[in-house]
Amino acid sequence: MVRNVLLAPAALVGLLAPFVCADVEFVAPKAGDQWEAGGVEVKWRESGVAPALTDLTSYDLFLCAGSNDEYVDVLHITAGGPGSFPTGNKYPASIGSGLGASTPQNAYFFRMTSTAAKGGTVTNFSPRFSLSGMEGTFPPNIVAALKDVSGTDGPGRIDKTSDGGPAAPGGNEFEVEYTMQTGPTRYAPMQPIPPTKITKKKATPLHPTSAFTIATTFLARPTVQTTITQSQTFSISSRENTAAPAPMPTDDMAKFLARWKD
């Protein structure tokens, strides 16, 4: 059940349509709304900041909990590939009561990470709201982070499209070690081209081994949403083989092949 959700009159939407053309702005939930666990409907509209919704090709929608600096994705609501952005700028979500707690107030918000047609991603966050009827718990780090939450603003917009940040193809982001990168979008270097012949006598790793720690408790949910691999600069060309084909055999091989004509 969704409470206190107001829809703009059709006449007002028609009046504003020519002047807004941008990414996601959540309109439901509203700041400070009280929603109940179960079936809810998330809604959004053009925000007024590029890129346009029509320039977003795919998306991931999450329910999050925590502070603006430290939060966890408690539910991956839905994902859509290229050309499958939700019709009508809304999506019905099912929120199970065991995903988190009902307290504190305004612990929850939605996050949508969208891929732009021109490259990169843009991440938008809804205002904070509360969920009642929740019977689960939050991880200890989220419980601690929620103590610092005040107000109803969610995290700030993250623009990593080619016009808004380091997502521009060909930038030096591809030179940063993958494990040293932060944010939902990571960049991988250009894939090597196989050689024309094998010269190695034994297999050797391309990169040194990395330090690791064996997990003894449950780890936090992954935050990387997209990996962009640097475009290949290698190209090939081909041409027709103009050499005349070899003639059919006339010796014993011809007799052998003739046996299979039946």
From TrEMBL:
Keyword Mitochondrion: no
Protein name, as recorded: Uncharacterized protein
Domain of life of the source: Eukaryota
Yeast cell wall synthesis Kre9/Knh1-like N-terminal domain ranges (all copies): 29-131
Signal peptide range in chain numbering: 1-22
The keyword Signal appears for this protein: yes
Domain Yeast cell wall synthesis Kre9/Knh1 C-terminal: 173-252
GO biological process: (1->6)-beta-D-glucan biosynthetic process; cell wall biogenesis; fungal-type cell wall organization
Keywords on record: Signal
Region called Disordered, residue ranges: 152-172
One cellular component term from this protein's GO annotations in UniProt: extracellular region
InterPro entries recorded: Kre9/Knh1 (IPR045328), Kre9/Knh1-like_N (IPR018466), Kre9/Knh1_C (IPR008659)
